[in-house]
Specification:
Number of helices: 7
Strand order of the largest sheet: 2-1-3-4-5
Oligomer: single chain
Number of strands: 5
CATH class of the domain at 16-145: Alpha Beta
Distance between the termini: 59 Å
Strand content: 5-15%
Radius of gyration: 17 Å
Helix content: 40-55%
Amino acid sequence: AVGDLSSSSSSSSPELHVLAVDDSFVDRKVIERLLRISACKVTTVESGTRALQYLGLDGDKGSSGLKDLKLNLIVTDYSMPGLTGYDLLKKIKESSAFREIPVVIMSSENIQPRIEQCMTEGAEDFLLKPVKLADVKRLKELIMRGPKSFLQNDIDSSSSPSSSSSSHDVSSLDDDTPSSKRMKLESRIHDCA
């Protein structure tokens, strides 16, 4: 018996499986709840090192028997003690077994160079905490459409030369506005100031 790893395998509508990595218990519970509300199977771990162990990428021969592990998405905090979310992202993207799985980085800090560094290294998206249900809905859509397509469409439509940056008001965005859209609008307003 493998336990939770094989808990639900409905053939009519396969459940999306998300690995959520965060050192904060509260943040782990928030992302877990939002993902479960969105009908995802969620596995949570409290560190980048634990995530590597779960994925069998820690070099331990005993944990490498997870070749049939089915994950659709990995969501990780950026700032964690030891192995950061950025380090975890790099290790996942170096792995032949897991490099195609979308990785989303979360952070409470909107630091543009950090965001760009993660996106360059292969992150699918970068979410500002607190993560909202709208963010999770976008992530689920991202999984359904396939890597890079959803984010690219969002960037293309929001960065067209014809759109006026000054017409966007971040204060008018409600709690359901995805954090990636809030970040883009905030950075445009900052650039115009």
